[in-house]
Amino acid sequence: MDSVVRPLGVVGGSLVVTLAVGWAVDRALRRADARHPETPLWNLLRRARLPLQVVVCGSLLRVSYPQAHLARGHTREVAQVLTLVLIGACAWMVVRGAAAVVEASYTRYASVHAPRDAARVRRVRTQVTLIQRVVSAVVGVVAVAAMLLTFPAMRGFGASMLASAGLIGIVAGIAAQATLGNLFAGLQIAFGDMVRIGDVVVVEGEWGTVEEITLTYLVVRTWDERRITMPVSYFAGRPFENWSRGDARMTGTVFFHLDHAAPMDLMREHLHDVLEECEQWDGRAWGLVVTDTTPSTIEVRALVTAKDADDIWTVRCLVRERMIDWLRREHPYALPRVSTATAPGPAEAPDRRQTVPGARDIGPGPGSR
Fold first, then answer.
1. What average pLDDT does the structure give for the chain?
2. Rounded to 5 degrees, what are φ and ψ at 117?
3. Is residue 364 part of a domain?
4. Do β-strands 217-222 and 200-203 pair in parallel, antiparallel, or remain unpaired?
5. Are 15 and 108 contained in the same domain?
6. DSSP label at 216?
7. Amino acid 271: pLDDT
8. Which of 10, 113, 212, 225 is positioned for an S-S bond with 219, CB 3.0–4.6 A?
9. What is the mean pLDDT of residues 143-151?
10. CA distances from 190 to 126, 218, 288 (A)
């Protein structure tokens, strides 16, 4: 009877205590969240409830398992497994807790500065994301190292590894040059403010928005919903266009090729009317000038402004559409035309000979026959 009651008491008691601790912690976090609605920290910390329960249960079983008298011939192996589970659960809980603190800090910062300084908020978001990934990677490495050190064979192996750490480090550095280069490039991007999450960039002729930045690669979402994955070292070693750095406002142009008889004054008036009806135009500047001329047409440039790249594209398309439609209806003569008249024949060609004053006709020369 004791062989049944004792294991049930140890395992069942551990589970009951684990559930009770999880319920109590979750209830306390709910109350804290209700008392402090201005910060999402307490609600985010609830994500660490499951790893906390695993830590509590693993700790209780690790301490009380020898008293259960189960698998007496494998006590050491079971203790080893419980130790590994406990280390992994602690690392899991630390990562969840750090992520909650970082995300809560960023949310409060963004709620204060987002309305007046969106670029600065994107920069902080990029830095916070990379810092969180670095913390997760460091915690994971430490947890794996701690798991390996629980094996007796690995402890002796660790001394020999320390003796050859310099040589191994040199070999690993040479073998992982690309990876380490991307790692340091990611840190340079995060703290050098080169590119941020949400920035509008042009890379390799592709226009898109930076969607994700990790320690090794960067994802750009193009306007047609494609994703371009690029190593972060590309942005640290090559030139690229960043349309959102400092100020997202942009100036755009629309070109028209028209006939020489195009009514420029009327076009300026209609362009202003079109912009007044366009919600995306920010009202900063506009203009219409003739920038070039050819024997058959003139080149007219319309200048417009908007608050960001998406709006400038909309304004340019709208101006192009409305202006062409207005010229087609009201001033069709202003549109470029292709001449289809036949070329004059020899009879209609003008006399190209020129008469020089004082010159006399000496007739055909010798040998003209």
1. 75
2. -145, 75
3. no
4. unpaired
5. yes
6. S
7. 93
8. 212
9. 79
10. 6, 12, 41
